[in-house]
Every structure is written in structure tokens, then in C-alpha cells.
Specification:
The complex is a heterodimer of chains A (517) and B (181). With 517 residues, chain A is α/β, with parallel strands linked by helices. Chain A is built from twelve helices and 22 strands. In chain A, the strands form four sheets. In chain A, strands 1, 2, 3, 10, 11, 12, 13 and 22 form an eight-stranded mixed sheet that branches. A six-stranded antiparallel sheet of chain A has the order 8-15-16-17-14-20. The longest helix of chain B is centred in the N-terminal third of the chain and has 17 residues. The chains are: A alpha/beta (517), B mainly alpha (181).
């Protein structure tokens, strides 16, 4: 039986400044930061976790409406976007800013990194610790900690069942997903906080255990500066934030090691501010996003797609084409936002939501994204889609639409701004034209990765295979920023497994650390 | 936070007036069934709260979108009027042209966020046919601080658990971070 977790110190309620002296300071409490906190606290290190977002407990978020979740738990209330450069869509990036990070807002989907990808990491980047065999123990550890289970077929929504019927008619099939859940009741709103507290996100697993081992979590705390003495990390500085983001007390943490786990969107900003990797020009580059697209379809029968697991099945039939097809849904108010028309035309669609099905796909992309640090503004994201990925996007959208027609859909709604409903496969021909402007597509992603690559060569990577930066001793990056390539599957498990592997290494190379008294 | 920063986070009365007129137009089922004022009031209240939490770039985009919507009727339908001064019929014609034209992204932005908040009103949600607990139950259960809890609900969900009071902050000590170990 573990001891009672330490209380979370909420910056918005704390008066005055904070000073701490610890073995390890971790920036970010999401999938990576929480894993590292648990492993290092369990090993006896004194650990502090600094989280910019607020402390929204499962008791609170389970009672939120979707827009309340967006306001209180999403980065920029869900309005973060990557500006498309050239022939590229505007890409909406959904990321968490809360204790537990994006893990509280995922569909709970668990995939291991495809072996072919890991083989590439070993061969092209020298990351021998990340071969499929070497990662096996880390995967197993995460699967146990977060209660990974297979979604039973009876939990599939009618929307997913219909898509599966269409797929079977076209000669491919769906497979059951795995998710980190315990007691899912199929409310189909995982991305906006589980209403039944069934998602085993890191706030209720790893971070809770880390707190039981003495780690202190401070929420509403924005780290603004890394303190570096010579070539060695000395700690971090930051600010407590009020409920509306206003500045409050100062925070100064002296630490023997600093682990950055702020996500591929935020981690590069801290590194750039500190001048880490400035000679390589690699910090903030190579951002991959897995551009995602959703196709909806109207049927002549009741679908009530909100009954069942939001994500329950997938298809890797088009893996060779760089496409993963995933079952998806969203709360009604989010889906209605994508429907065509105004007035009576829009009403015609919103009154048929019972007949609406939806399925999604994501593109295994090249690293065409970049994180820019703009003084006075903060982070600005840009993304240039490669021609290969654009063709993948067009093909994937066509596959989704054809599959729903094969399932008997009377009308298909494509993710095209200002687009008209499609009533036959013949009307999909425009998707065969590579010159159709990419900016007209509605695109969303949950998987930013790779903006501070891991590798052996300091001229092309930011961190070593141990996660330590090439430039500064004791400064580590342990989140999805270190991925040297896109992975083509949902990133929650991959981030946790890689963080586990890195944290085990940090724990076992205890140089400069002393056990807490 | 200074008064300027607060002002930059909040929508102005004029911007809300434009948003109100856009919402009344896009969510009107037909001319005989205008959107009930109570739903529009709720939508504006929630829109204001939502935009205040959006990112700097999105808030700037919102301000630009309101300006475009308010002053573009001359260019799209040849009327020398502000959007809010047009008749209901002219507003609908204008917004359809705006959505289909090169400035369509303006409509996408406004329609997206207005739909987010409008369809959280229980009656608007009911009009879609939604009949499960996922959105209705926990969110609108008794005890919610949201004004929506005072509105009609469609089902009788189980009461939500009340969030615990903030726990006392631990004391920071050199070489250690908490007393819990």
C-alpha cells in the first residue's frame, strides 16, 4: 500500500514566492513528465514537477461541458494552430495544459511504435536503446501501470460498425484497439474528459504514484528560464500564474538535474531561450504532426454514434501508403461546427445527428513543422506539407468516403471548407486532382512530435540517446520532442515508453544525485 | 493583470452585437422559427468566456473576423450597410455568400466557435436528437456552477460529485520536496 500522495500545490492559490532545492526538477506533468517523476521519486530522488496548467481533478472535469474542458484544460482553449505554408492546410493542434497534460484528453488509444519505424531509428540515428527488443520492458511497464485493455467489439458504436461493414465490402477489415481504461461506459467524449473517470491518464496513475513517493507537483507554474552555470544545469526559474493567467509569485528551483517534458510544442521554447542547440539550428525544427482528417456520413437509419466507445477500432490496411484509419467521434456541439450551410440548410443537418456516422484517418508525415519563438507573442507554429503527404491526404479522405458509401451512406460530408455534400463515389473524382488546394481541407492533430530530436550527431540532433542535451550537462529532454521521426500511430504509449526508457537510464546513472534524506 | 490586458481578452459590446446577429442568422431554422432570445443570451455569455481563454493569435483573428463581417456587405451584396443593420433575409444572403467566397475562413472561425457554445444549450442539444448521458448527465447535474444548470434538462442524471476543497500547500524544504514519503 502506497502512502497518501502529497497534495498538489496550486499556484493560483499560493501567496508569495517559492524556492526549492531538489535532485530533479521536471517541467511538465503530462505523459512523459509524470512517468519520469514516478520512476525517479520511487528511486528515492527528491523530485519537483512544475506544470503550467491548472489542477483540474477527475471529479471536476467529469462534470465539465466540452467547452468548459477546452477553456480549463486545453492549450489556448483548443485554438492552437499551425499556419500552413505553401500548399498546406491550417492545422488545428489540440494539446492539454493541465495537470496530467494531454493524457487526460486523449481517446486513451494505445499503440506501440511500429517495428519498422524503430528499426529506422536504430539504423539511421544510432538509437540502439530504442530497438523493439530493448523497448519491450518499457512497453510492458506502461501497459501494467495504465491498465491497458482491448476494447470489446460490443463497445463499438454503430458508426464504427457501419464503417467496418463498408470496409469488409471493399476488402479490408478493422481491428480492435487497445486503450488505457478501467470501467469505460461508452460515453463517446474521451477528448473532453471522461465523465465516468474511466480513463487511466497519468494524473491518476503515474503522477499519483510519484506523489506517494514524495514528489511535489506545483500547478499554475510557468517555467520561463533554465539556469545554467558553465556547461551544467543549475535549476529553473518561473512564475506562478493566477486563474486567468496573470503573473503571481516568482519560483526558483535549484536542481542537480532538469528534465524538460513540456511537449513538442513548448519544449523548444525553453531550449531556444537558453541558447541550447543554437549552433545546430535543430531546436524547434522537424516537428511532425500526423495531420488528421474526419469524414462524416449520413445514413437513412438511426446511428446514434454517441453510444459506444469514442475510439474502438482501427485499420492498418493502408499502412504502406502512410495512412492509419481510426474510429473517432466527438461531442455533438463539436461535430455541428463542421456541418455545411447556414439557417435552414444547417438546421437540416443538425436535426439529423442521429443519422450521422464519422471515421478518421491520419497521415504518417514528414517533419515539415517548426516551432518559432516570437518575443511578445510566444510560440508560433508553421507547417509545410510535403507533396507526398498531400497525396496521402487526398487518398485517405477518398478511402474513408468510399468506405461509407460501400456501407450504404446516402450522403458523405468531406472535411472541405465550403464543400457541398457528396452523394456518389463519382463525385469524389476531384480528390484525384493533386492540384486541389490543400488549404481548403479541415485538418486537426493530437500528436505533435520531434522538435528536439535525439541522435548521436550534435550537428543534426539536440539530445543524446540518453535524453541529455549535447550542450548542457544534467539537462534532459524526455518528451515526444526527442522522436527523430513521425511514427504513424497515436503517440500516448510511445511517449510514455520512451520516457520510461530515458528515466530508467537517468535513475541508473546516478551521477551528481544523492538520495533524499 | 492590467486593465489593457483584460480588455484585450474580452469581447467588446460591439463585437458581441455582431456575434449575436451572426448566431441569430445561422441557427435560425426558418423565418417562422427565430432562435429564442434565451438561447442567444446563453450563447453570448459562453462565447465571451470561451474567447477570453483562447490564444492571442485566435483572439486577434476573432477581432479581424468581426470587422470583416460587419463591413463587407457592400462588397458581397452591394449594400452600403453594416451587417447588424441588414434585414434578417439580407443577413442570411450575405452570410451564405461570405461562406462560399474567398473569405470563407472568416465564417468557419465564427461558425465553429458559435456552434461549440450554442449546441451546449440543452434545448439546442435536444434539437439534434442527442439522447445519451455523456453530455447531459455529469455536465448539467445539480450543483454545477454553470448557469446552464438552471435551464431545462432532458434527462435526470445522477448527481455529480462535488470537487474537493483545495488541499493545504506543503512546506518546501531544502533537499526534499514534500513530507509525503
Amino acid at each position: 500500500m502506497l502512502p497518501e500522495p502529497t497534495p498538489i500545490l496550486e499556484g493560483r492559490h499560493h501567496e508569495g514566492d517559492l524556492v526549492a532545492d531538489v535532485d530533479v526538477a521536471i517541467v511538465g506533468s503530462g505523459a512523459a513528465g509524470s512517468v519520469a517523476a514516478k520512476i525517479l521519486a520511487e528511486a528515492g530522488r527528491s523530485v519537483i514537477v512544475l506544470e503550467e496548467g491548472g489542477n483540474v481533478t477527475p471529479e471536476r472535469y467529469s462534470a465539465f461541458r466540452p467547452t468548459e474542458t477546452m477553456r480549463h484544460m486545453f492549450r489556448d482553449a483548443g485554438t492552437t494552430a499551425a499556419i500552413g505554408l505553401g500548399d498546406t492546410p491550417l492545422i488545428s493542434i489540440l494539446a492539454g495544459r493541465t495537470v496530467g497534460g494531454s493524457s487526460t484528453l486523449t481517446g486513451g488509444v494505445i499503440f506501440r511504435i511500429p517495428e519498422a519505424i524503430l528499426d529506422g531509428w536504430v539504423k539511421r540515428h544510432g538509437l540502439t536503446d530504442f530497438s523493439p527488443d530493448r523497448l519491450e520492458a518499457a512497453y510492458r511497464s506502461v501497459e501494467i501501470e495504465t491498465s491497458v485493455e482491448t476494447v470489446p467489439e460490443e463497445m463499438r458504436s454503430k458508426s464504427t460498425v457501419l464503417f467496418g461493414e463498408g470496409a469488409a465490402r471493399l476488402g479490408y477489415s478493422l481491428k480492435s484497439m487497445q486503450r488505457n481504461t478501467k470501467g469505460c461506459r461508452g460515453s463517446s467524449r474521451c477528448n473532453f474528459g471522461c465523465p465516468n473517470k474511466a480513463k487511466m491518464s497519468v494524473d491518476v496513475t503515474y503522477l499519483s504514484e510519484a506523489r506517494s513517493h514524495g514528489a511535489l507537483v506545483i500547478s499554475d507554474c510557468r517555467v520561463t528560464r533554465l539556469t545554467i552555470e558553465g556547461q551544467r544545469i543549475a535549476g529553473v526559474e518561473g512564475r506562478l500564474l493566477g486563474a486567468e493567467g496573470e503573473k503571481r509569485g516568482k519560483v526558483r528551483v535549484h536542481a542537480r538535474k532538469v528534465l524538460i517534458a513540456g511537449s513538442a510544442l513548448s519544449t523548444p521554447l525553453l531550449l531556444q531561450q537558453a541558447g541550447v542547440g543554437k549552433w545546430t539550428r535543430a531546436v524547434g525544427r522537424n516537428l511532425t504532426l500526423h495531420p488528421g482528417f474526419r469524414v462524416a456520413a449520413l445514413f437513412d437509419r438511426d446511428v446514434s454514434a454517441w453510444k459506444g466507445a469514442m475510439q474502438s477500432a482501427y485499420s492498418d490496411a493502408y499502412e504502406a501508403d502512410g495512412l492509419t484509419l481510426n474510429s473517432v467521434f466527438a461531442p455533438i456541439n463539436i461535430l455541428t461546427a463542421t456541418l455545411p450551410g447556414i439557417g435552414s440548410e444547417l438546421h437540416g443537418y443538425t436535426s439529423q445527428m442521429r443519422n450521422l456516422a464519422a471515421f478518421g484517418m491520419m497521415v504518417h508525415d514528414d517533419g515539415g513543422g517548426r516551432v518559432h519563438r516570437v518575443p511578445g507573442v510566444g510560440a508560433v507554429f508553421t507547417y509545410r506539407m510535403s507533396r507526398r503527404d498531400k497525396l496521402r491526404m487526398l487518398k485517405g479522405i477518398r478511402i474513408l468516403a468510399e468506405t461509407y458509401f460501400a456501407a450504404g451512406a446516402r450522403e458523405v460530408l468531406l472535411p472541405v471548407f465550403g464543400g457541398k455534400p457528396i452523394r456518389s463515389v463519382e463525385e469524389l473524382r476531384f480528390l484525384d486532382d493533386p492540384s486541389f488546394p490543400a488549404r481548403r481541407f479541415e485538418c486537426v492533430t493530437f500528436h505533435p512530435l520531434g522538435s528536439a530530436r535525439m541522435g548521436l550527431d550534435p550537428s543534426t540532433s539536440v539530445v543524446k540517446p540518453s535524453g541529455e542535451t549535447h550542450d548542457v550537462q544534467g539537462l534532459y529532454v524526455v518528451d515526444g520532442s526527442v522522436f527523430p521521426s513521425s511514427i504513424g500511430v497515436n503517440s500516448q504509449m510511445p511517449i510514455m515508453a520512451v520516457a520510461t526508457q530515458l528515466a530508467w537510464g537517468i535513475r541508473d546513472r546516478a551521477d551528481g544525485l544523492q538520495l533524499a534524506a | 493583470m492590467g486593465s489593457f490586458a483584460v480588455a484585450m481578452k474580452n469581447l467588446s459590446t460591439r463585437q458581441l452585437a455582431v456575434a449575436h446577429a451572426v448566431a441569430a442568422t445561422i441557427f435560425e431554422a426558418d423565418s417562422l422559427h427565430p432562435v429564442p432570445p434565451e438561447r442567444l443570451d446563453f450563447t453570448m455569455r459562453e462565447l465571451r468566456a470561451y474567447v477570453a481563454r483562447a490564444g492571442l493569435q485566435t483572439r486577434a483573428a476573432f477581432r479581424a473576423a468581426f470587422i470583416v463581417v460587419q463591413f463587407a456587405p457592400l462588397f458581397l451584396i452591394g449594400r452600403l450597410h453594416r451587417f447588424t443593420s441588414l434585414s434578417a433575409q439580407a443577413k442570411a444572403v450575405y452570410l451564405r455568400k461570405l461562406e462560399a467566397g474567398p473569405l470563407g475562413l472568416v465564417m468557419v472561425l465564427l461558425k465553429t466557435v458559435l456552434s461549440f457554445v450554442y449546441f451546449e444549450h440543452p434545448d439546442a442539444l435536444a434539437s439534434t436528437g442527442y439522447d445519451a448521458q455523456g453530455l447531459l448527465g455529469p455536465a448539467w447535474a445539480a450543483g454545477s456552477p454553470s448557469p446552464i444548470s438552471k435551464l431545462r434538462v432532458i434527462e435526470n442524471p445522477a448527481p455529480a460529485q462535488v470537487a474537493p476543497e483545495s488541499e493545504p500547500a506543503p512546506e518546501l524544504l531544502p533537499g526534499r520536496v514534500a513530507e509525503g514519503a
